[in-house]
Structures are given as C-alpha cells and as structure tokens.
Amino acid sequence: MLQIKNLKKSYKIGEHEIKALDDVTFELASGKLVAIVGPSGCGKTTLMNILGALDGDFEGDVIINGKSLKEAGTKDLDSYRKNTIGFIFQQFNLLNSQTSKQNVELALDLSGISKKDRSEKVKYLLERVGLLDQIKKRVNLLSGGQRQRVAIARALANDPDIILADEPTGALDAKTGEKVMDLLKEISKERLILMVTHSPEIAEAYADLIINMEDGKIISIDENLAKGREMEIIPIKKEETKSKMSVLTALKLSLRNAWIKKGRTLATAIGTSIGIAGIALAIAITSGTTNSVNTQVRGVFPTNSVMVGYKENIDKNPNDIKKLGYEDIEEINSLDNEFYAYQFPLKGEDIPMMSFYSLEEDLLKAEDFFNKLSEEDTIKRLIDMMSPGIIEDVKDDIQYGTVPNEGELNEFVISLSTAKNIIKDDEKLEDLIGKNIYVSFVKQTSHSDKMRGQGKPPEIIVKPLKISGIANTTTLMNTYYVSSDWNIKYYEKEFNLDKKKMEASSMIVYGKSAESIEASVERLDGNQDKYQFEMAGKTITKQIESTMKQVRMGLMGFAGVSIVVAVLMISIVIYISVLERTNEIGILRAIGARSKDIMNIFVAESFIIGILSAIIGIGISIGISNVINNLVYKFLGTFANNAPYMEVAKLPLKDAGLILLFCATLSIISGLYPSLKASKMDPIDALKRR
Ligand code: ADP
Ligand code: MG
Predict the structure, then answer these.
(1) Is there a domain that residue 251 lies in?
(2) How many whole angstroms from 170 Cα to the centroid of ligand 2?
(3) Nearest CA to ligand 1 atom 20
(4) Domain identity same for 577 and 494
(5) What's the CA-to-centroid distance between 47 and ligand 1, angstroms?
(6) Does residue 46 fall inside a structural domain?
(7) Which ligand does the CA of 167 lie closest to?
(8) 214 exposed, middle or buried (CB, 10 Å; 0-12, 13-18, 19+)?
(9) How many domains does the chain fold into?
(10) Angstrom distance (rounded) from CA 651 to CA 657
C-alpha cells in the first residue's frame, strides 16, 4: 500500500548541499507498526514530511494506494492529508487553549460531517484513547501523556490508512511513553503506523518492522521477529470525504479566537468604530434634518399649490427675469382644469395691500395703529378669505352661510380659522354670517419703510366687507396677494387698479389636493415650453436636500480619513493574529485544511471585527443622535405648532444596513493581505513556530 521509490531530498545552505534523503526505497503493507530508527539528523523527519504531503519538493516518488504523490494536484494532496494520513508529533501540536473535544472536533470539522455524528465520534475517539473523562478539559491543563493521547484521537478522526508519528514519545517520560506506545501498538492492528524514533529500545519493544537509517540512507530493514507477533489485520471501512472546511467552521474558529483575545478584538473594533460612527452620524444628521425639515415645511406650506414662472427665467439673474402679467394669469388658469385659484403678488407704487382685519372699524383707523398692532390682538393680520370666483370649486367646503352672489364684490367667504380668530367667546360661528368685517389696506410706496422710520405712518384705507359664509378648507389666500378675479375686480373698482400693469416674477396656483396638483404639474411639465412649475414646498425642500448632500460629503470626508486608519488597524491586528496563530496554521494544514480554508479563517476574523465595529459605531451614532434630538426639541421645539416632533438626527434603517455591509466589505479587504500571507505559509515552517 505504501511504496517509496528512489526518494531524494537535499537542502542547499549557501554553497553547501545537505543530502537529507539519499535514494530511499522501500515498500510497506498495511497493519503494521513500522519504526524508523536512526540518529538525529539522518533524515527521519524529512521523510515523514514528504510522506505526509507537507513537503512536495523532492525527487523520486511516493505511491500510496496506487496514487503518486508526485503527480497529485493541490486538491488531491489536501484530501490525502485529511483522509489518508494522520499525524502525530513529538510536541503534540494541539491547540492548547482549547479543550480535548474541540481539538478532536477540529479534524472532523474539515470533513463537514453532521453535528450529531461529530459529537458521537469525538466521544468514541476520546474513549478509545482513554480520555473520555477529560473531554471538556483545556489541553494545557493535561499531562504530556494525556496530550499525546488527544493527538492520537485527533489523528484517528478521519480514519486514515496511515498514521505518521514523529518521535511520539520524545517529549514524554519512559513510563508515560510506554502507555502511548501500547495504544499505538493496539491501533496498528487496523492501520499502518509509521513511527520515527531515535531509540532502538522502543523500536525493538514494539515494532513489527525496523528501518534503520543513517545519513539519509536506509542501511537495513529488519523484521522484528523477536516479538513474534501474529498479525491479525482488521480492515478499516471508511468513506472518503472531500477536504473542505465550511465557512461556518472558519467563522467558528475565528469567533473562538476573537473571544480568547476579547480585549484586543474589542479595542480594535472600538478604534475602527469611531470612523464608522462618524459616517453614521453624518448620514443620520443630514437625512434626519432633511426629513424633519421636509415634514415641517409640509405642515406649513399648503401642499396643494404650485409656483409658476417663465421657463426662460431659469438660471437668470433676478434683475433680468421676464415678469408675469395679467394675460399670463388667464393663460395659466386655462392650462389645466385642476387649477382653480391663484395668488398673484401685488407690487409697485400706490397699490394698497389688504393687510389687517378687525370687527371694529375704529381700531384700524386709530392714529397710533402701528403701535397698537403688537399688543392688540383684536387686530388680526393675514385674513384668510375667499372670493366668489374661487368658491365655485369649493362649494362643498362651506360650513355656514352661502357663496356670495355672482358679481357681488362686497361679500366674501372667510376660512374657518379666520372665523375662529375673530369670534368672541359668547358667540357662535353662524353669528358671524352677514356681519361686516373691516379690512385695512395699507398703501405701499417705495418710501413706506423710510416714512415709518421717520415716524410718519403709511396711509391706511379701511373698507368694510360682508361675511357671506365660512368654509373649512385648507386653501389659504392671504391678504398680500390678489387671489383670483374677485380681488382684481375689487381693486379695479376701489383703487383704480390697471390690470395691464400688474406684474410678478412668479405666481402660485392652487389645485384641489396635493395629489391632483402634482399630477397636473407632471402632465404639464413635459408639454410646456413657456411656463415652469415648481411645487411650493419643494423649492425649499430641494434646497435643503442639496445643501445637506454637500454637508454629508464634507462630514464623510472627515470620517473617510479615520476609515483609512481603521483599514490599517484591522490589517495590522490580523497580521499579528496570523503571527500568533502560525502554529495553528501548521496544525490545520497537517490535518487537511486547504490553504483556502486558512485564508477563510483570517478573513472571518477581520469580518468579525468589521461587524463588531459597525454595530458599535451605529450604536454610538444612535446614542449621539438621541442626545441631539432631545436638545433640539428642548431648545427649538417644533417648527410649526401642528408639526411632528423633529428627529433631526435619524439614521435610516436602509443606511444602517449599508454601513454594516460597508464595514464587512472594508474589514474583509483590510484582512485580505495578511490572510493571503497566512494561506501561503509553508506548513512545515508553520509547525516549527510556537
Ligand atoms: P531527523 O529528523 O532524523 O533528526 P531531519 O530530517 O530533521 O533529521 O534532517 C535531516 C537533515 O536535513 C539534517 O542535516 C538537517 O539539518 C537538514 N535539514 C532539515 N530541515 C532543513 C531545512 N529546512 N533547511 C536546511 N536543512 C535542513
Ligand atoms: Mg526529527
């Protein structure tokens, strides 16, 4: 089953060439305990490493079960190490911080057998080597003999055909050594054990065959007839399993390691998390602010309005823009039948603005009107009124009274909120119908501000208007604008307004609802070359969004610097971990882990750090966000009375997910280089490192 043909191996050290193996040829059948005996440095370990496929750099060939090691590919060799060979070392090569169970399990993990089968097999194996009672003990608490027996159990885990034991008793005292040899002798009934020893006594006491070596050569092969052992060979049944460590196993191994080094893992994660927290906070603040300002804006601005101006004005200097005139009002109103009212700002010399209202005429006419204004709450500003022209479309909203008669300019409908403002405590809303309300028109001149500054009040004209109805509607038509035809007609009659002279840079058009006006705008926007439509709140919203985007980029830039530091930090920590776990890498390779599996272990470790730092970072940012939100609420309250509580810093779930993904990717990339180094490590060198 094992043929060794003309095996040669030499090491070059400078000019010198050391022949570690010099034309070694022999053949072995299964079910024997074969001892290779020779003085130190004669090439025994070199031979074992080649047989164990840890060293592929040799001349000649090794043929096992008809397969050549020389011709085998990487995959075959990984599978060979796991399924055909079991290694036992002089220095045990166990994972000392882990239990007996975990050490044996490790070999089984590589075969991907089920959890239940695995646990049973571990028990069986540890029972076989007489250590069932030590199953949960950490290996570094066991005696040397016990450790070697754990190593034997591990070597047996995947039912290998051949066990390679390099000085298995070398680190043990004579008595413990005997016990280990008894166990190996017992195992050799089922499978070939190739054991290296420098002790002829041990060889003679236990081996069926003794191969004597000297200076890389075999000098004699003796059948150890003295022992006169009757060979009773029990054939072993086994299934060949693919050499493959699941990603989950890699993660488990790394988690275990991260747990052992929890201080360092946590410190690295916290260090990395600061940058992540910065990013999370930048996103939280910018998106939270955008969102809460948007909701506040929506609470204040009627969403059923759209701003209209000339399309050609986009990107124009404010002084050069083309103004809308009366013809435009008519044209825009006819564009879509969803449009039912408009506000056209009145500007210019000698145009009186509808400004204040009161139920008492005297109040508005008072000499010291402007002084009274602030203290006198019977003088209200910004009347919400509706003219007959508008009412046509909102008849259903009338709660009290009626729509004014067509052509009647002295009657109008007020909004419910205005009605509630002027009503006296002992009055009912319906009592207002038919009452006169006095409205002040303040003459706007370009000097009005200056005049006020000189103590000369602007000219105030007071006119009575009759309340014909009260409507519950969201449409606000405040007094600084001419809203619809009623106003224009009224101004023409009362103030000689020349509507041909009306002009404004933009006007606001109302629709029935936010949805309907949005649909209208969408309908028109593509087909309109002349006018530009912009949802009223959207201008502000858009501005905030673009500002916040810039703020976000700025903040992210700062955080980006700390990310670079984080990458370096993870990289270094993984590199240190690789150095610390070099021996483990060797062990894993010897028991059949692929170099890819080694890579996975360290990538998994960086992944763990990445995820941990993401969680900590997001946690920190949520904590800070809460503080910010509470402070904002405490000092600013909400923007509008009916607007919801503002969460100016709020990380959207989607972005939290993205950060997690980002961290995972970032950490994996950071760990890639040291992981690659680990996977490329020479198993023999790695085993020597402790
Ligand atoms: P043994 O196990 O019988 O003591 P080894 O197989 O370890 O002997 O070594 C055989 C010879 O090869 C020795 O002379 C040793 O110094 C040399 N040797 C082993 N490994 C290396 C190596 N990596 N580089 C150079 N020389 C080596
Ligand atoms: Mg040796």
Answers:
(1) no
(2) 10
(3) 46
(4) no
(5) 10
(6) yes
(7) 2
(8) middle
(9) 3
(10) 10
Q: Which of 12, 36, 46 to mutate to test the pocket of ligand 1 (most atoms within 8 A of CB)?
A: 46
Substitution site in 7, 10, 17, 18 for ligand 1 pocket (most atoms within 8 Å of beta carbon): 18
Q: Is 539 exposed, middle or buried (0-12, 13-18, 19+ CB in 10 A)?
A: middle
Residue 206: which residues within 8 A CB-CB, separation 6 or more? 33, 35, 181, 184, 185, 227
Instruction: Mark which of 511, 537, 563 sits at the end of a domain.
Output: 537
The tokens 């879509």 sit on which residue?
336
- Average pLDDT by consecutive 10-residue portion of the chain (690 residues)? 91 90 87 89 93 92 89 86 90 91 89 82 92 93 94 92 93 90 90 91 91 92 62 53 72 86 90 90 88 71 77 82 87 81 68 75 74 59 49 65 78 77 81 86 61 61 86 52 65 82 82 78 80 75 82 83 87 93 91 90 93 94 92 72 69 92 92 95 87
Joined tokens for residue 614: 């993401």
Three-state SS for 361-420 is HHHHHCCCHHHHHHHCCCCEECCCEECHHHHHHHHHHEEEECCCCCCCCCEEEEEHHHHH
Instruction: Please indicate, yes or no, whether residues 517 and 559 belong to a single structural domain of this protein.
Output: no
Same domain, 514 and 564: no
d(CA 51, CA 28): 12
Our mutation pick for probing the ligand 1 site, out of 10, 40, 42, counting the most ligand atoms within 8 A of Cβ, is: 42
Residue having the nearest C-alpha atom to atom 17 of ligand 1? 20
Based on the fold, state whether residues 636 and 683 are members of the same structural domain.
yes
Which 8-state DSSP code applies to residue 426?
T
pTM for the structure as a whole: 0.67
**String of b and e for 513-527 (b: at least 16 CB within 10 Å)?**
ebeebbebbeebeee
